[in-house]
Amino acid sequence: MQEEGCAPNSMTYTTLINGLCTEGRIEEAFRMLVEMVENGCKATVHTYTMPIAVLCDAGRLQEAFDLVNKMVEGGFQPNIHNYTALINGFCKESRLEEASKIFNKVLEQGLVPNVVTYNALIDGLCREGKVDAAFEILEKMEKAGCKPNARTQNELINGLCKERKLHKAMLLFDGMLKSGLAPTRITYNTLIDGYCKEGKTNNAFRLLDMMEKNGCEPDLHTYSELINGLCKEGKLEQACDLFSKLHEKGLTPNEVTYTTLIDGHCKGGKIDIALSLVDRMKEDGCEPNAYTYNVLMDGLFKDNQISLAERVFGKMLKRGLVQIPFTCTILIDGICRAGAVDYALKVLDEMVCRGCEPDVHTYSALIHGLCRQGKLEEAELLLEKIEEKGLKPDQVTYTSLIDGSIKLDRIDHGFDILRKMIKNECQPNYRTYSVLMNGLLHESKMQKVKLTTFKGAVGDSYPEENAFNIDIALKLLDKMVEKDCQPTVDTYNELIAGLCNGGRVQEADQLVKNMSARGLLPHKGIYTSLTMGYCKQGEYAHALELLNSMSENGFEPTLLIYNAIICGLYREGRTKEANRLFDNAISSSFSPEEITWTILIDGFCKEGEFDACLKLLHRMEERGCEPTVQTYSALIKELWKEDKPLEAKLLVNRMREKGFVLEEAFLC
């Protein structure tokens, strides 16, 4: 171009620089920027925009910042795109304070943030768990007249799902549907993943149904999450059925999908099927990865197939797939479970010699193995080694040591370890307290028979957890005080949840009274455990009292609590109370979809109370809490499935009266 006497101008250079940036050739773009200045060609704001964005995407924030300063020195005012790139870059690096400062600077300079600017900050806040702050930005966004898009909602939904606030995420989803803002595949996948993690695969499959009917094609990630959720719930047959349909849908399972299914079968004790899946995986040209072999090895050890597990480990070594120290932890834990703790210690030494530094889980597995063999002193020496290395012992570490102390009748020493555990900010769980109550109960029985010389007089085995009584639980709390580890609300929460899960709700209720006497107030988790415990025992009057107390103390009951009490009250013929409670649920922060799924479908339909279900649906409609057409369709589908054609047709007619356009697929 220059040889022909045509000198490149600013636009030429800017176009070339942008092209190089797009191709990822950042260094060449910078050289051209230097050449541009040397040739006396003045850069524009647009010349800098793409390089700044590319530097921010690459995490080279200081260079991007320097370039912005260079712009300012050259007499240019950075535009909203430049600032947005910086905000996005700082958010990706979790430097939210700096991102917020830039955002405030944008406002101070009178620039108008666009939807991309707001989304960058909202995404950054949600990633760091600051969802409330993200909603504050959303409020500013809407006040400024900037309309949120699907990406805005997706970022907020993702943030809420990470915080396990699915009911709030579903409210946003419901708002998207009603405002005409089409949910994307990311929206559906995020919610499906959230429900699967919560163990609510029924709702996850309802979302899948909505997704398909709304013309949004599920991908492999969608099905992998569903398969994972089913496996975690132990629904292996259903998981296999879904897996077998992937090829029909034109999807090829990858190593994540296969490994999820293999892990599910290993945890379900179906090792033969897990091994056959590994073979099938290879036949499909999908090579098992380190995680695949890890879950397989763990399953084999737990199934006591030691030699086969060791062969898997050998295969991993040959292929260079050993995820140190994770893989070695599985190996050591498996060897300890087989009772070969001395050999496990040698494996640990070999790990260290190979340059692999064990983590806290590796040491915890060894400590657990040593304590099982009564080698408490060796286990405590290993604990010292953990602390010397700057590692933080976890619940498994401390609970194993407490258990080891109790089994040697050193209950006071067990409480000493508990005090150390709490001092080191490691929260005990129900298993920890159960071990201590076990020891106290055993000690109590020994005292009753006035045992003095022969330990076996009351048996060498320790009592089962269902042998605990309230006196033992209270004795535990008193002993904690005596040992200078004051019980906290979390202490009571663990004990109460454990007792309720074991069906001993009255004893759990006594613990609530005890904690109140100590000046401690129950939190939402304690109310939830007790309320659900009373519902399981059919004591709905008690459950209703607790629900009222819960609300009075500012805690919002979950839909599962509403469902359990409303269904129970209906069964007892207390329909007025049930209806009043249903109205409370409607006026709470739950989406019509979740109310329909949880109370109407999973509650009344599953119990065969179809008339009550339709009456409550009508009650929802009267109060303006109307589900979407897809949720109506899910209810119709449930009625057809339960062989209730008259009720299904009645609901179809009601939908038509409302002007809903029904597809044939919705009606069967």
Descriptive overview:
The protein is mainly alpha-helical. About 70% of the residues lie in helices and about 0% in strands.
Strand content: under 5%
Count of helical regions: 36
DSSP, total strands = 0
- Oligomeric state of this protein: single chain
The helical percent reads over 70%
Terminal-residue CA separation: 69 Å
Shape: globular
User: Can you tell me the residue ranges where pLDDT is under 50 for at least 5 consecutive residues?
Assistant: 450-463
Structural class by SSE content: mainly alpha
Give the biggest beta sheet.
none
Task: Please sum up the structure shown.
By secondary structure, the chain is an all-alpha fold. The protein has helices spanning about 10-20, 25-40, 45-55, 60-75, 80-90, 95-110, 115-125, 130-145, 150-160, 165-180, 185-195, 200-215, 220-230, 235-245, 255-265, 270-285, 290-300, 305-320, 325-335, 340-355, 360-370, 375-390, 395-405, 410-425, 430-450, 470-480, 490-500, 505-515, 525-535, 540-550, 560-570, 575-585, 590-605, 610-620, 630-640, 645-655.
Q: SSE layout and pairings?
A:
Layout: H1 10-22, H2 26-38, H3 45-57, H4 61-73, H5 80-92, H6 96-108, H7 115-127, H8 131-143, H9 150-162, H10 166-179, H11 185-197, H12 201-213, H13 220-232, H14 236-244, H15 255-267, H16 271-283, H17 290-302, H18 306-319, H19 326-337, H20 341-353, H21 360-372, H22 376-388, H23 395-407, H24 411-423, H25 430-448, H26 470-482, H27 489-501, H28 505-517, H29 524-536, H30 540-552, H31 559-571, H32 575-587, H33 592-605, H34 610-622, H35 629-641, H36 645-657
Helix pairs in contact: 1-2, 1-3, 2-3, 3-4, 3-5, 4-5, 5-6, 5-7, 6-7, 7-8, 7-9, 8-9, 9-10, 9-11, 10-11, 11-12, 11-13, 12-13, 13-14, 13-15, 14-15, 15-16, 15-17, 16-17, 17-18, 17-19, 18-19, 19-20, 19-21, 20-21, 21-22, 21-23, 22-23, 23-24, 23-25, 24-25, 25-26, 27-28, 27-29, 28-29, ...
